[in-house]
Amino acid sequence: MTTELTFVERTTLLVLMAESRPLKLTELRTLGSELSAKSREKLLGAELIGVEKVGRGIVVDLTDTGWARGSQEFGAPTPSQASRSGGKTLYTLLRAMRRYFDRVGIEPNEVFLPATAGTTQKHASIDPESLVRNSYRHLASEPRAWVSLTRLRGALPTLDRSALDAALTSLYRAQEINLIPEANQATLTEDDRTAALHIGGQSRHMMKIDR
Fold first, then answer.
1. Helix/strand/coil for 61
2. Common-topology check for domains 7-110 and 121-208
3. For residue 162, what are the contacts with CB-CB under 8 A and spacing of at least 6?
4. pLDDT in tens, 7-57
5. Which of 32, 125, 163, 171 is the most exposed place for a label (fewest CB within 10 A)?
6. Please, which pLDDT band fits residue 116 given cuts at 50, 70 and 90?
7. Which of 12-16, 79-83, 175-179, 180-184 has the lowest mean pLDDT?
8. At the topology level of CATH, where does 121-208 sit?
9. Where are the beta strands (DSSP E) in the chain?
10. What is the mean pLDDT of residues 110-129?
């Protein structure tokens, strides 16, 4: 059964999709979504977002279910709560984007990726996704072996972190790699926690390529 969402809850999903990364509540507010505690718990209960306390702040991220639910807003009728001109304009734009997506055969998760700050000159002409694949094959002890993101990042020291995160996110959503949390959290070092990629409401520490 689909959970009925308010206009603010819908736009929260859209902001998280657009940024395609975990966001602090303060960042959400800056980007236009004032998410109340009640709405946060509602989205969490519907498994549309993951919520994690980081330091003194709270970080939220879309789950895979949240991505699917947010994608429904592209082409959806304008919600009754979007009475202001800005809300109506937003949904007019979303319907136009849906027409484009359908025409070229793509989905929002293929369009919205984390912003990258660029790469160093060493990697400027090399696709970051190819670097991930090549590094994995060098690090894996055997085909389809799990490799920690700590080791992967260590193998790509000159690749900007945001570019590497974007590459991992893109490959994961395209189902070209698998990313999972470390099963035994007690074994995680501070480096492992820092190297983790937060996606789908979870901090993921291990990756593998199945093909």
1. strand
2. yes
3. 114, 115, 116, 117
4. 999 999 999 998 888 888 999 999 988 899 999 999 999 999 988 887 778
5. 125
6. low
7. 79-83
8. Arc Repressor Mutant, subunit A (1.10.10)
9. 23-24, 49-54, 57-62, 147-148, 178-180, 197-199, 202-204, 206-208
10. 60
- Angle at the Cα of 33 from the Cα atoms of 30 and 34, rounded to 5 degrees: 95
Q: Does domain 7-110 have CATH number 3.30.70.1270?
A: no
pLDDT in tens, 53-72: 877 788 898 888 898 899 99
Which of these, 21, 22, 11, lies nearest to 114 by C-alpha position? 21
Q: What is the maximum span of the chain, computed from C-alpha positions, in angstroms?
A: 57
As a whole number of angstroms, the distance between CA 44 and CA 84 comes to 27
Question: Vertex 58, ends 36 and 94: CA angle to 5°?
Answer: 55
